[in-house]
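User: Okay, second chain of the day. Same drill as before: sequence in, structure tokens out.
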Amino acid sequence: MSTLRLFICATVAILIGTTHAHATLYGTNATQLLTINTTTGAATTVGALGFNGVHGLSFDASGTLYGVSSFTDQLLTINTATGAATAVGSLGFGSVRSLTTSSGDTLFAVDTVTNKLVTINKTTGAATAVGGALGFSNVLGLDFDSSGTLFGLDTVTDKLLNINTSTGAATAVTGAIDFNPSGVEATQGLAFDENDILFATDFHTKRLYTVNTTAGTAASIGAPFASVVRELAFSNSSAIPEPATLALFGLGLLGLGAARRGRRPTT
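Assistant: Same drill. Structure tokens below.
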């Protein structure tokens, strides 16, 4: 077999055998970083954040996890292995929450004092208002779906919203979503997975939910958390070669080496 054919075979093996690692769902109870099992709803503590009032989480395109502390009014970076957070800089608003990242790698959040959508500079931490008021008084969940549509949830009306990232105006796209049929509710976190399934958490029920964005219904997952989970964010999924693919690639490389050694200079 020629060297070119061996190289092509090895490359095709990598492309065919690549699988995608499932993204991990992270959350915060305001003082600790958690991982959450999306099948059982069970939460596991990663570690202490070192800050209070962490009410926003989002991964950027590079895989860096950001958070916002409404207590210190700061943008944070968070170590996903230890949970420890480091301050980036002051946001300059009264109560920034509900962090999310656009496909263009821009950090968005909501300030619940001015009720405005804001963008955040990842280098300085400074936030800038986008347009006018949202038109809703307490939006505590934000995330983009795969089409680039920004969703939010207003905890006063319990309605799912679409938010215009150019004007900051929000429009209700569902009626009131009943997260707690037996009492009051206050949803505080939203996150889409890689399949565009929307997950949410509720302050009063302490549960994880999936949300039907068309019907405006919610379904709980598992038992209640031990403490209130306030925000959610999925890690970036990554492409990983399967073991069999790596073996095929290794054989391809060996074949390449043998082919190169088998060549003899002409005289």
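The helical segments are 3-17, 243-262.

User: Thanks, on to the next one.
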